[in-house]
Amino acid sequence: MVIRALYYILTICSVLAIFLLFQEPYFLDLTKNTNNIANMQVYNIEDFEISDKVDKILRAKKAIRYAHEDVLFDGNLSYIHDGLNYFLTSKKMKLKDKIITLSKDVVLNRNDGLEFKSEQLKYDFENKLIFTDVPFNAFGYKTIVNGDRLRYDLKTKNMLVYGVKASYELEKK
Questions:
Q1: Most buried of 27, 102, 125, 163, CB within 10 angstroms?
Q2: Residue 14: phi, psi to the nearest 5?
């Protein structure tokens, strides 16, 4: 009787050992936990970038710094490039890898009358590009433009608009 019980236990152990030997380790769930834990929280931020003059001013009511990105709330960014002042405002900003992503009620104003509204906008600091992949409205120069995507190069001052839905010439009465 004891030998029969020992036989069954050894059989079960050897079947389990063979099963574990041929099991693929790639099917195991070895993903990292993606919980972001805030390293720091700051309130009422003003950040200035100064070269020979003040180039950028970033203001926000609240900022949270994570390991790989910064998230700002109720912020605005003032930027001067080639004599034009750019004013970006949004409810939420994410700064990651030299690209700032603005979301929720994004408004871009330029001091020559151009105004841009969208739900999301990205600004690449290194390449000096403003772009979006969501629908937007642009106002300025007596024109209203609605489009699906936008890419604006600050270096060349070229604006590429994809999926233009409407453009209206407005007259003052």
A1: 102
A2: -70, -35
Closest-CA residue to 149 (of 164, 139, 170): 164
Q: Which of 101, 99, 107, 106 is nearest to 124 (CA)?
A: 99
67 CB-near residues (< 8 Å, 6+ apart): 36, 37, 39
Backbone angles phi, psi at 10, to 5 degrees: -65, -35
Residue with tokens 């009465």: 173
Residue 12, φ and ψ in degrees, nearest 5: -65, -45
pTM: 0.65
Architecture label for domain 54-169: Sandwich (2.60)
What's phi and psi for 28, nearest 5 deg?
Answer: -70, 150
pLDDT at 32 over 70: no
Phi-psi region of 118 (alpha: psi -120 to 50; beta: other; left: phi over 0): beta
**Other beta carbons within 10 Å of 39:** 10
| Contact of 152 with 136, CB cutoff 8 Å | no
